[in-house]
Backbone:
C-alpha cells in the first residue's frame, strides 16, 4: 500500500498560492489517472486539477474555499484500491486555521510558535511538512554577511512584479501596506484595498487647515454591507467574481474613460462569410463575425500604435506585440484569454484561436499564460442582442472594443450620385479608450480605418 501526495500546483511563475474552490471527488472515491480531482482559482485563471495517479482518495487535507501556498499537500491517494480510507479522517483538521500545525510529524515541535502574525493562515494550511513552510514566514532582518536588509530587497521579496508596478503607478510604499499573502507578501488585493480604503488620519502636523481638501482625490469608502431580507438568497462571490469586481473598480478609478461609436456596414463581410463558411467548417473552424472584426483590429493596431499601448510612469509604453484579449462570458464570471501575435495570423488562424480559447475557457482548461500579456481587448455583448455598450478598460491596456448586435436595417446607398434605400447588415462598434495617452483624434482615426477595412474586406481573405 503506497500513498501519493496531491499538491496545490504552481500555475504560473508569479503565482504563489491558490484557492481550492471545489472538490470533484470525496474521500473513498476511486480516481483514475489524469481524471479531474478538484478545481482551483488563482489570480489568473480557474482550472481543474487532474489526479497524478490512479487510486482511492484517502484524505482531504484542504477544504473548499481555503487558500494555500503552492506545493501544499491538499490530499492523499492510496494507490491500492482495497486500501482502508477511514483512518484518514482524523487528519482533516487542516481547515481549522489555528496557529498550531497538525501533529503529522511530531518530532519537530520547535515551530510551535512559528507563525508571526504576518501569515498564520499560510503556515497552518501546510500539512505534514511544516518545517520548510514555517521557516519562510520569519523574514530575518540581517541578510547574507550580516548587513541589514535593504527596503528594495524586502519589497522585492514580498511582492510580485505586478504589485510593484501598481505601487509605482500610485506612488505607494509597499512596506507600509499590511500583506496577507504567503510570508506576509503584499498581494494585488492588498494594494487595491489600501487604495480603496478611506484616507487614514496622518499624525497631527503643524500644517494649515488648507491641506484638508486632499482627501477629495481618494476613492470614496465602500458602501456599507446590505442586510438580506427574509426570502433573499445570498451567494458569496467566487474568486473570479471578486477579482473582476476589484479590477473593474480600479480601472474606472485609474483611467479617464472616453467612448467613440461607429456604425459599420457588415454586408460585404456577411457575403464573404457565406461563401467561406462551409470551407472553413471542413477545416474544423467556425467562421464568425467576431473573427472578421478581430482580424480588422489586429491589422490596424500596427498603424495606430498608441491604441495598442499602456501607461507607464509618466511615459507611454508602446507594445511591440499585438495580443488580442477576447472576453468570454462564463456561468461563474468573465475571463479574457489572449490571442498572441494576432497581426501575424490569417483570418482562419484568428477564427481557430478564438474558437479554441473560448471552448477551453468554458471547460476550465486554460493555463495562466493564456490570459496574460494582452495589449487590446474585444468584448462581444452583441451575441446577447445588445445594440452597443461602453465597457471598462482592461488594465493596463489603453483601449477596449465593444461589438454590438449585427442586424438587417434600411440604409441609404449612394451609387453614381443617385441615392437609394436598401436592406443592409448593420452593427455598431464602440471603443473605450484611456484619455491620458489616446486623444479623441487618435481613437477616431483608428476606428475609421477599422470601418474601412470591414466594409471593403478582401474577397481572398483566408
Residues:
Amino acid at each position: 500500500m503506497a500513498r501519493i501526495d496531491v499538491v496545490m500546483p504552481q500555475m504560473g511563475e508569479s503565482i504563489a498560492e491558490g484557492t481550492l474552490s471545489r472538490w470533484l471527488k470525496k474521500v473513498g472515491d476511486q480516481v483514475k489517472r489524469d481524471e479531474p480531482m478538484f478545481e482551483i482559482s488563482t489570480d489568473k485563471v480557474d482550472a481543474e486539477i487532474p489526479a497524478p495517479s490512479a487510486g482511492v482518495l484517502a484524505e482531504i487535507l484542504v477544504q473548499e474555499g481555503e487558500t494555500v501556498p503552492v506545493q501544499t499537500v491538499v490530499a492523499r491517494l492510496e494507490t491500492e484500491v482495497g486500501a482502508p480510507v477511514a483512518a484518514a479522517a482524523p487528519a482533516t483538521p487542516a481547515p481549522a486555521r489555528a496557529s498550531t500545525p497538525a501533529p503529522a510529524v511530531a518530532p519537530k515541535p520547535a515551530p510551535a510558535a512559528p507563525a508571526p502574525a504576518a501569515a498564520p493562515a499560510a503556515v497552518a494550511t501546510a500539512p505534514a511538512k511544516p518545517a520548510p513552510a514555517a521557516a519562510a514566514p520569519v523574514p530575518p532582518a540581517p541578510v547574507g554577511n550580516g548587513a541589514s536588509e535593504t527596503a528594495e530587497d524586502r519589497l522585492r521579496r514580498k511582492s510580485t512584479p505586478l504589485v510593484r508596478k501598481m505601487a509605482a503607478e500610485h506612488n505607494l510604499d509597499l512596506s507600509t501596506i499590511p500583506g496577507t499573502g504567503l510570508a506576509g507578501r503584499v498581494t494585488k488585493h492588498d494594494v487595491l484595498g489600501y487604495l480603496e480604503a478611506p484616507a487614514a488620519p496622518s499624525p497631527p502636523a503643524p500644517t494649515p487647515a488648507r491641506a484638508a481638501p486632499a482627501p477629495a482625490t481618494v476613492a470614496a469608502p465602500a458602501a456599507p454591507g446590505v442586510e438580506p431580507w427574509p426570502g433573499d438568497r445570498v451567494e458569496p462571490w467566487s474568486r473570479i467574481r471578486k477579482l473582476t469586481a476589484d479590477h473593474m473598480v480600479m480601472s474606472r478609478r485609474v483611467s479617464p474613460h472616453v467612448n467613440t461609436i461607429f456604425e459599420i456596414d457588415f454586408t460585404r463581410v456577411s457575403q464573404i462569410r457565406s461563401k467561406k463558411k462551409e470551407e472553413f467548417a471542413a477545416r474544423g473552424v467556425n467562421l464568425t463575425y467576431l473573427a472578421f472584426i478581430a482580424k480588422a483590429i489586429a491589422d490596424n493596431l500596427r498603424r495606430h500604435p498608441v491604441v495598442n499601448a499602456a501607461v507607464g510612469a509618466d511615459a507611454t509604453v508602446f507594445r511591440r506585440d499585438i495580443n488580442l484579449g477576447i472576453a468570454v462570458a462564463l456561468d461563474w464570471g468573465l475571463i479574457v484569454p489572449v490571442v498572441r501575435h494576432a497581426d501575424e495570423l490569417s483570418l482562419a488562424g484568428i477564427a481557430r484561436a478564438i474558437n479554441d480559447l473560448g471552448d477551453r475557457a468554458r471547460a476550465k482548461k486554460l493555463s495562466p499564460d493564456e490570459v496574460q500579456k494582452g495589449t487590446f481587448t474585444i468584448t462581444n455583448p452583441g451575441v446577447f442582442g445588445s445594440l452597443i455598450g461602453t465597457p471598462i478598460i482592461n488594465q493596463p491596456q489603453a483601449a477596449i472594443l465593444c461589438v454590438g448586435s449585427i442586424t438587417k436595417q434600411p440604409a441609404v446607398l449612394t451609387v453614381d450620385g443617385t441615392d437609394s434605400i436598401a436592406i443592409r447588415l448593420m452593427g455598431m462598434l464602440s471603443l473605450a479608450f484611456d484619455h491620458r495617452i489616446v486623444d479623441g483624434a487618435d481613437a477616431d482615426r483608428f476606428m475609421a480605418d477599422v470601418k474601412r477595412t470591414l466594409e471593403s474586406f478582401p474577397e481572398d481573405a483566408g
